[in-house]
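A further point concerns the way the authors explain their paired sequence and structure data. For illustration, here is how one protein appears when written out as sequence plus C-alpha coordinates:
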Amino acid sequence: MQQVFYPGHAGQPCVGEYTIIIEKSDMLERADIVLVSRAGHGAAFLNGNFGRDCVVNRILANDLNGIRLDRIRLFVLVEKAVDVPSPMPPFRGLEIKDILLDTDDYIAKGNPGTVRRRNFLSRLFTGISDRISYWSGHVVGGCARFSTSLKMARRLDQPEIETLCARIGLVRPQHAPPISPDNGLDRLSPRNTLSSSSYH
Protein backbone atom coordinates (compact mmCIF):
# COMPACT_ATOMS: atom_id res chain seq x y z
CA MET A 1 0.00 0.00 0.00
CA GLN A 2 1.25 3.48 -0.87
CA GLN A 3 0.25 6.68 0.89
CA VAL A 4 -1.26 9.43 -1.23
CA PHE A 5 -2.31 13.00 -0.42
CA TYR A 6 -5.23 14.74 -2.13
CA PRO A 7 -7.57 17.73 -1.66
CA GLY A 8 -10.88 17.28 0.11
CA HIS A 9 -14.16 18.84 -0.98
CA ALA A 10 -13.21 22.12 0.76
CA GLY A 11 -9.58 22.03 -0.34
CA GLN A 12 -8.36 20.60 2.96
CA PRO A 13 -5.45 18.14 2.94
CA CYS A 14 -6.49 14.47 3.10
CA VAL A 15 -4.50 11.27 3.11
CA GLY A 16 -5.39 7.87 1.72
CA GLU A 17 -3.74 4.74 0.42
CA TYR A 18 -3.70 2.89 -2.85
CA THR A 19 -2.29 -0.20 -4.45
CA ILE A 20 -2.38 -1.84 -7.88
CA ILE A 21 -2.98 -5.54 -8.40
CA ILE A 22 -2.18 -7.29 -11.66
CA GLU A 23 -4.91 -9.83 -12.34
CA LYS A 24 -4.16 -12.56 -14.87
CA SER A 25 -6.57 -14.81 -16.72
CA ASP A 26 -6.25 -17.21 -19.62
CA MET A 27 -7.02 -14.47 -22.15
CA LEU A 28 -5.62 -11.22 -20.78
CA GLU A 29 -4.02 -9.32 -17.93
CA ARG A 30 -5.59 -6.32 -16.25
CA ALA A 31 -4.63 -3.82 -13.55
CA ASP A 32 -6.94 -3.31 -10.57
CA ILE A 33 -6.51 0.03 -8.79
CA VAL A 34 -7.67 -0.08 -5.17
CA LEU A 35 -8.13 3.23 -3.30
CA VAL A 36 -8.45 2.96 0.49
CA SER A 37 -9.85 5.66 2.79
CA ARG A 38 -9.22 5.17 6.51
CA ALA A 39 -11.59 6.47 9.17
CA GLY A 40 -10.53 9.85 10.55
CA HIS A 41 -8.09 10.68 7.75
CA GLY A 42 -10.13 13.41 6.10
CA ALA A 43 -12.69 13.33 3.32
CA ALA A 44 -13.12 9.84 1.89
CA PHE A 45 -12.60 9.03 -1.79
CA LEU A 46 -16.38 8.74 -2.16
CA ASN A 47 -17.17 12.18 -0.67
CA GLY A 48 -16.41 14.06 -3.86
CA ASN A 49 -15.08 13.58 -7.37
CA PHE A 50 -12.27 16.15 -7.43
CA GLY A 51 -9.90 14.58 -4.90
CA ARG A 52 -10.52 11.09 -6.26
CA ASP A 53 -9.92 12.29 -9.83
CA CYS A 54 -6.61 13.91 -8.79
CA VAL A 55 -5.41 10.60 -7.37
CA VAL A 56 -6.65 8.50 -10.29
CA ASN A 57 -4.97 10.79 -12.84
CA ARG A 58 -1.73 10.65 -10.87
CA ILE A 59 -1.83 6.84 -10.82
CA LEU A 60 -2.67 6.59 -14.52
CA ALA A 61 0.08 9.01 -15.51
CA ASN A 62 2.82 7.64 -13.23
CA ASP A 63 2.13 4.00 -12.43
CA LEU A 64 0.02 2.91 -15.41
CA ASN A 65 1.37 5.15 -18.14
CA GLY A 66 0.71 3.57 -21.53
CA ILE A 67 -1.65 0.89 -20.15
CA ARG A 68 -4.91 0.63 -22.07
CA LEU A 69 -7.89 2.01 -20.17
CA ASP A 70 -9.97 -1.05 -21.07
CA ARG A 71 -7.45 -3.16 -19.12
CA ILE A 72 -7.95 -1.17 -15.90
CA ARG A 73 -10.54 -1.45 -13.14
CA LEU A 74 -11.06 0.90 -10.19
CA PHE A 75 -12.18 -0.10 -6.68
CA VAL A 76 -12.69 2.05 -3.59
CA LEU A 77 -12.71 0.82 0.02
CA VAL A 78 -13.89 3.22 2.75
CA GLU A 79 -13.35 2.24 6.38
CA LYS A 80 -16.38 2.56 8.65
CA ALA A 81 -15.96 3.83 12.21
CA VAL A 82 -16.93 1.15 14.73
CA ASP A 83 -16.75 0.92 18.52
CA VAL A 84 -15.94 -2.80 18.76
CA PRO A 85 -12.61 -4.05 17.30
CA SER A 86 -12.91 -6.79 14.69
CA PRO A 87 -10.37 -8.98 12.87
CA MET A 88 -12.11 -7.99 9.66
CA PRO A 89 -11.71 -4.26 8.90
CA PRO A 90 -15.20 -2.73 8.55
CA PHE A 91 -15.13 -1.42 5.00
CA ARG A 92 -17.75 -0.58 2.45
CA GLY A 93 -16.67 -0.96 -1.14
CA LEU A 94 -17.52 0.07 -4.68
CA GLU A 95 -16.31 -0.77 -8.13
CA ILE A 96 -16.30 2.46 -10.14
CA LYS A 97 -17.25 1.52 -13.68
CA ASP A 98 -16.81 4.94 -15.31
CA ILE A 99 -13.31 6.29 -15.93
CA LEU A 100 -14.13 8.98 -18.47
CA LEU A 101 -11.79 10.43 -21.07
CA ASP A 102 -11.55 14.22 -21.46
CA THR A 103 -11.84 14.32 -25.25
CA ASP A 104 -10.84 17.99 -25.52
CA ASP A 105 -7.60 17.26 -23.66
CA TYR A 106 -7.09 14.08 -25.70
CA ILE A 107 -7.14 16.03 -28.97
CA ALA A 108 -5.20 19.00 -27.58
CA LYS A 109 -2.33 16.67 -26.62
CA GLY A 110 -2.03 15.37 -30.17
CA ASN A 111 -3.42 11.88 -29.67
CA PRO A 112 -4.70 10.00 -32.76
CA GLY A 113 -8.28 10.83 -33.60
CA THR A 114 -10.55 12.07 -36.36
CA VAL A 115 -12.33 15.40 -35.88
CA ARG A 116 -15.38 16.04 -38.04
CA ARG A 117 -17.12 19.38 -38.27
CA ARG A 118 -20.90 19.12 -37.92
CA ASN A 119 -23.09 20.85 -40.48
CA PHE A 120 -24.76 24.17 -39.72
CA LEU A 121 -28.19 22.78 -38.81
CA SER A 122 -26.68 20.15 -36.51
CA ARG A 123 -24.60 22.80 -34.75
CA LEU A 124 -27.63 25.08 -34.50
CA PHE A 125 -29.97 22.52 -32.91
CA THR A 126 -27.47 20.59 -30.76
CA GLY A 127 -24.97 23.30 -29.87
CA ILE A 128 -22.20 20.78 -30.62
CA SER A 129 -19.56 21.89 -33.09
CA ASP A 130 -17.38 18.83 -33.66
CA ARG A 131 -17.37 15.08 -33.27
CA ILE A 132 -14.22 13.05 -32.74
CA SER A 133 -13.61 9.36 -33.30
CA TYR A 134 -10.72 7.39 -31.80
CA TRP A 135 -9.54 3.81 -31.41
CA SER A 136 -9.89 2.38 -27.91
CA GLY A 137 -6.31 1.12 -28.04
CA HIS A 138 -5.05 4.71 -28.11
CA VAL A 139 -6.80 5.59 -24.83
CA VAL A 140 -4.07 4.76 -22.32
CA GLY A 141 -2.86 5.96 -18.95
CA GLY A 142 -1.22 9.37 -19.23
CA CYS A 143 -2.61 10.20 -22.68
CA ALA A 144 -5.02 12.85 -21.33
CA ARG A 145 -7.05 13.83 -18.28
CA PHE A 146 -9.67 11.46 -16.95
CA SER A 147 -12.59 11.86 -14.58
CA THR A 148 -14.59 9.35 -12.57
CA SER A 149 -18.29 9.03 -11.87
CA LEU A 150 -20.27 7.09 -9.29
CA LYS A 151 -23.33 6.98 -11.54
CA MET A 152 -22.72 3.40 -12.69
CA ALA A 153 -20.74 2.26 -9.65
CA ARG A 154 -21.35 -1.26 -8.40
CA ARG A 155 -21.60 -1.87 -4.66
CA LEU A 156 -19.45 -4.78 -3.47
CA ASP A 157 -21.05 -7.35 -1.21
CA GLN A 158 -19.34 -8.48 1.99
CA PRO A 159 -17.62 -11.58 0.52
CA GLU A 160 -16.20 -9.42 -2.29
CA ILE A 161 -14.97 -6.83 0.22
CA GLU A 162 -13.28 -9.53 2.29
CA THR A 163 -11.65 -10.99 -0.83
CA LEU A 164 -10.41 -7.57 -1.95
CA CYS A 165 -9.01 -6.86 1.54
CA ALA A 166 -7.20 -10.21 1.44
CA ARG A 167 -5.77 -9.48 -2.03
CA ILE A 168 -4.22 -6.20 -0.90
CA GLY A 169 -2.97 -7.54 2.43
CA LEU A 170 -5.40 -5.88 4.84
CA VAL A 171 -6.61 -9.27 6.10
CA ARG A 172 -5.89 -12.89 5.30
CA PRO A 173 -9.00 -15.01 5.73
CA GLN A 174 -8.55 -18.77 5.30
CA HIS A 175 -11.19 -19.03 2.60
CA ALA A 176 -11.79 -16.00 0.38
CA PRO A 177 -14.47 -16.38 -2.30
CA PRO A 178 -13.64 -14.87 -5.68
CA ILE A 179 -14.97 -11.50 -6.75
CA SER A 180 -18.21 -11.84 -8.67
CA PRO A 181 -17.67 -12.67 -12.34
CA ASP A 182 -20.06 -9.84 -13.16
CA ASN A 183 -17.25 -7.34 -12.77
CA GLY A 184 -16.87 -5.83 -16.20
CA LEU A 185 -14.39 -8.44 -17.46
CA ASP A 186 -16.18 -8.61 -20.80
CA ARG A 187 -16.10 -4.83 -20.96
CA LEU A 188 -12.35 -4.93 -20.33
CA SER A 189 -11.52 -7.51 -22.97
CA PRO A 190 -9.01 -6.14 -25.48
CA ARG A 191 -11.43 -5.49 -28.28
CA ASN A 192 -10.35 -3.01 -30.91
CA THR A 193 -13.24 -0.58 -30.94
CA LEU A 194 -13.88 2.86 -32.29
CA SER A 195 -15.48 5.46 -30.06
CA SER A 196 -17.00 8.78 -30.86
CA SER A 197 -17.50 11.85 -28.72
CA SER A 198 -18.85 15.28 -29.33
CA TYR A 199 -17.57 18.50 -27.86
CA HIS A 200 -18.06 22.20 -28.28
Q: What stands out?
A: The chain has one domain: 2-199. The helical segments are 49-62, 103-108, 120-126, 158-167. The first helix runs from residue 49 to 62.
